[in-house]
């Protein structure tokens, strides 16, 4: 899966010298053990809810100007908002924050502004939520992030709610001692470029306090850490990932919900703390005791919220959250409609008489009294479904601004050929289709993704039947999660930068008559953690797997099992082992395979088949799964008791054997038909 940084490089953005700064890692915390798997930590966490002078070489983006759309003719302002991630990164790391602690942030910012800002002689638009007015700066007070201003000779003022005269604004400024926040000033263009540095510095401070700084950062009990590394960098990454649609919608919503809740809790905590008095009276003492208990509860809640936010701000943890959905609000199944009836949802951009007649003849049963609902947006139609409903999507090109999350057992079908019913994903951060219902049937549709960061379809749980569909992928194709089921028939899948199909342990996958091509990897079988999970049960019949960059079929395994062997042997040629451990499979003919042995510096095992082998790598995949099952049996025997309990052993073996792999064709795959990657 390509990273955000890689995609930014590919997009042609100008990179500054500071782009290769340190990447924040995963910091240990009292909430999680260093050796504990990340996913387990996240589950536990979310289970109950979640020096520079003016002559220095300072990085500055080429300044452009823009005209504000106003009724009053204000001067143009220096445009500084379109800074890239790397420009902001370098500014905060090298010039503003450095290795400052949280308690030193304000002092470092004031020192930076003292060296960069022009103290007087420039004009700016003072803009806030109420009004905009042109002012001239006469002094800068960096310690309080304020500027001393007065009105320009030409009075330019605009407000939709509070129209003020020059005299009224003068009185208002006098009441404020002519001091206004630096963040509310937008530097006006003077044509000389003399104040570009000033405009850029104010933009950095404005962005910092709007998107990076949190009110509670300064009150952190643990103040002995690098603020840039722990807080600034991950929050900056998150901000740009959100701007570039690299974060799922639900994750963004949950982050902002937690941020708002944390802000409210912090305000309540500060208010409670300030109300505790030092009086010695008995009444005041009792009140203080109650306040301290309530304050302690608020403090504990605040710490929990801060930790959840820290997890979501960390890029690595955020990937796990995005992949597994920990801590995110999950869609609940509605179940059957209260009335008991089932509804047919028809989606069409334009309903004509001829189309309606065709639907009545072919899809809508006129002999039975059923309810039909008509929609123009497929997302709205699917979200309106109850268990047992049917969604018919008529021919057309639908741009989907969102995603399909299916929690009820429904049927979705395209009315026409797949190439005529096109669903194109807008945005990058969400999986296009996510299935978690008992059974979902999808047919005759074409799904299209562009510049995505998530897969095109993910089966999280339950069974999904995919028939006659075209899947034009971008990052990852179809993902079959642990214990889920997928039946994919007569589908065309291509274009994935990762695997066309990812199969996780303990899942069940039936592939029949599919064309899987032009991906980085065809089918990726994630067979890790063999002691904890069963191997996936896969049936492959009459599939065409071709033109992949790496292998047609790739299996991921732990290298530790092979490191314990005294002699590296090819398990696929070990007929005696197959006869002993694989039941009826021990009698099948095994093709002659040339296996590249695994050395300490080699972590891939390639299977090369003779040209005379008609079945290509069908047997290779089958026998590898059989071998894996045999190894797992050796690990499970001590838990089963005596080795003589053959009935239990045979039962376990039968549950783990690869179901069927016949009639498949593997062609023009870059590294070969089948390979094993060790970790």
TrEMBL record:
Lineage: Eukaryota, Metazoa, Chordata, Craniata, Vertebrata
InterPro entries tied to this protein: Beta_helix, Pectin_lyas_fold, Pectin_lyase_fold/virulence, SHCBP-like_N, SHCBP1-like
Domain Right handed beta helix: from-to ranges: 440-555
Keywords, in A-Z order: Cytoplasm, Cytoskeleton
Domain SHC SH2 residue range list: 87-318
The organism of origin for this protein: Callorhinchus milii (Ghost shark)
Pfam families linked to this entry: Beta_helix, SHCBP_N
Protein name: SHC binding and spindle associated 1
Entry GO CC: spindle
Region named Disordered: 1-41
Bias (Basic and acidic residues): 1-11
Location within or outside the cell: Cytoplasm, Cytoskeleton, Spindle
Record-linked SUPFAM superfamilies: Pectin lyase-like
């Amino acid at each position: 899966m390509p990273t955000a940084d890689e995609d930014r490089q590919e997009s042609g953005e100008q990179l500054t010298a500071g782009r290769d700064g340190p990447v924040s890692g995963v910091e240990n915390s009292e909430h999680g053990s260093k050796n504990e798997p990340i996913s387990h930590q996240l589950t536990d966490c979310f289970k109950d809810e979640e020096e520079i002078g003016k002559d220095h070489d300072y990085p500055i983006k080429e300044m452009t100007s823009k005209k504000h759309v106003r009724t009053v003719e204000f001067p143009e302002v220096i445009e500084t908002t379109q800074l890239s991630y790397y420009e902001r990164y370098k500014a905060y790391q090298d010039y503003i924050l450095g290795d400052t602690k949280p308690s030193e942030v304000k002092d470092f910012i004031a020192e930076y502004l003292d060296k960069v800002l022009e103290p007087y002689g420039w004009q700016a638009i003072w803009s806030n939520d109420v009004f905009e007015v042109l002012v001239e700066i006469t002094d800068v007070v960096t310690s309080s992030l304020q500027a001393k201003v007065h009105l320009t000779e030409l009075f330019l003022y605009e407000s939709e709610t509070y129209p003020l005269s020059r005299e009224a604004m003068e009185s208002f400024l006098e009441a404020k001692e002519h001091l206004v926040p630096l963040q509310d000033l937008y530097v006006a263009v003077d044509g000389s470029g003399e104040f570009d540095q000033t405009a850029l510095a104010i933009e950095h401070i404005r962005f910092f306090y709007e998107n990076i700084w949190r009110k509670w950062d300064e009150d952190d009990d643990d103040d002995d850490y690098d603020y840039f590394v722990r807080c600034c960098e991950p929050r900056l990454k998150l901000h740009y990932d959100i701007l570039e649609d690299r974060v799922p919608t639900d994750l963004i919503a949950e982050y902002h919900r937690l941020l708002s809740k944390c802000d409210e809790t912090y305000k309540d905590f500060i208010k409670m703390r300030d109300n505790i008095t030092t009086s010695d009276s008995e009444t005041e003492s009792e009140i203080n005791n109650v306040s301290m208990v309530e304050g302690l509860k608020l403090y504990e809640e605040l710490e929990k919220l801060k930790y959840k936010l820290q997890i979501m701000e960390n890029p690595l943890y955020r990937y796990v959250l995005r992949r597994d959905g920990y801590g995110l609000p999950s869609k609940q199944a509605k179940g059957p409609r209260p009335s008991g009836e089932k509804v047919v949802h028809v989606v069409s951009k334009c309903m004509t008489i001829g189309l309606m007649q065709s639907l009545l003849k072919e899809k809508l049963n006129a002999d039975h009294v059923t309810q039909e609902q008509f929609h123009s947006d497929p997302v709205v139609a699917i979200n309106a479904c109850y268990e047992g409903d049917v969604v018919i999507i008529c021919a057309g090109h639908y741009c989907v601004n969102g995603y399909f999350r299916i929690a009820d057992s429904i049927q979705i079908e395209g009315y026409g050929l797949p190439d005529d019913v096109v669903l194109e994903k807008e945005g990058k951060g969400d999986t296009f289709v996510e299935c978690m219902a008992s059974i979902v049937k999808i047919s005759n549709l074409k799904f299209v993704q562009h510049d995505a960061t998530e897969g095109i379809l993910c089966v999280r749980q339950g069974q999904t039947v995919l028939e006659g569909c075209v899947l034009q992928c971008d990052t990852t194709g179809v993902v079959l999660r642990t214990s889920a089921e997928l039946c994919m028939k007569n589908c065309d899948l291509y274009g994935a930068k990762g695997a066309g199909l990812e199969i996780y342990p303990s899942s069940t996958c039936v592939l029949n008559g599919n064309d899987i091509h032009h991906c980085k990897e065809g089918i990726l079988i994630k067979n890790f953690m063999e002691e904890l999970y069963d191997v996936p049960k896969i049936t492959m019949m009459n599939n065409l797997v071709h033109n992949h960059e790496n292998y047609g079929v790739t299996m991921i395994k732990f290298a530790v099992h092979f490191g314990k062997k005294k002699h590296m042997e090819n398990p696929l040629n070990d007929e005696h082992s197959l006869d002993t451990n694989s039941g009826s499979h021990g009698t099948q003919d095994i093709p002659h395979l040339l296996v590249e042995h695994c050395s300490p510096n080699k972590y891939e095992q390639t299977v090369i088949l003779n040209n005379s082998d008609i079945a290509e790598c069908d047997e290779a995949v089958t026998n590898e799964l059989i071998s894996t099952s045999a190894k797992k049996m050796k690990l499970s025997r001590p838990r089963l008791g005596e080795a003589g309990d053959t009935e239990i052993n045979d039962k376990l073996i039968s549950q783990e054997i690869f179901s069927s792999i016949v009639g498949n064709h593997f062609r023009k795959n870059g590294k070969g038909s089948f390979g094993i990657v060790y970790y």
